[in-house]
Amino acid sequence: MIFGYARVSTEEQNLDSQIDALNQHHVERIFKEKMTGTKKERPQLQEMIQHLRKGDTVVVYKLDRISRSTKHLIEISEQFDSIGVIFISIQDGVDTSTPMGKFFFRVMASLAELERDIIVERTRSGLKAARARGKKGGRPFKDQDKVYMAIKMYQSKEYTIQQITEATGLGKTTLYRYLDKEKKVSR
């Protein structure tokens, strides 16, 4: 059987381009995840691995979709190899059914981790430089009176989301984030 694994880091992101690419590779079942790649324990990835049998194939759009660290990628590759599963990464041109594919996979995994480390280092440097100039990072704090008013309007069930966001100046995503926090607090 040919399995596909598609992942994006946040709920707001969309899996469509990955799913389209996987379907072009005749994937029979796709496991979809909306979770950061830095977390090793991902439910859909674990479920897919449990379904794997000798002779199966796992296809991903890109190596960084299945993992963000070389160590984890190599662990997954070794696990696939011990089961007798072929691993294919479409964008990276990896196909572990060949010796060259296995070698290339390990090289690409190392490069993917290097690229991620460089991005992290640049981000840290940029934040440090911004702080040195007196700038603060992160989301700006919202006026708590407006947040409180938005929550009360929502709870009254008299207003639409659009009316609430227009009245308070909060974005829809921000409103839902505060409503979610409110639900967790009231449990």
Instruction: Note the total helix count.
Output: 8
Helix content: 55-70%
The strand count comes to: 5
Oligomer: single chain
Superfamily (CATH H level) name of the largest domain: Resolvase, N-terminal catalytic domain
3D structure, described in words:
By secondary structure, the protein is of the alpha/beta class. The chain folds into 2 domains: 2-116, 3-Layer(aba) Sandwich (Rossmann fold), CATH 3.40.50.1390; 144-186, Arc Repressor Mutant, subunit A (Orthogonal Bundle), CATH 1.10.10. The chain is built from 8 helices and 5 strands. The model has no long low-confidence stretch (mean pLDDT 87).
Fold blueprint:
Blueprint: E1 2-8, H1 16-24, E2 29-34, H2 43-51, E3 57-60, H3 63-66, H4 70-83, E4 86-89, E5 94-95, H5 99-132, H6 144-156, H7 161-168, H8 172-186
Parallel strand pairs: 1-2, 1-3, 3-4
Antiparallel strand pairs: 4-5
Helix pairs in contact: 6-7
Brief overview:
The chain is α/β, with parallel strands linked by helices and 187 residues long. The chain has eight helices and five strands.
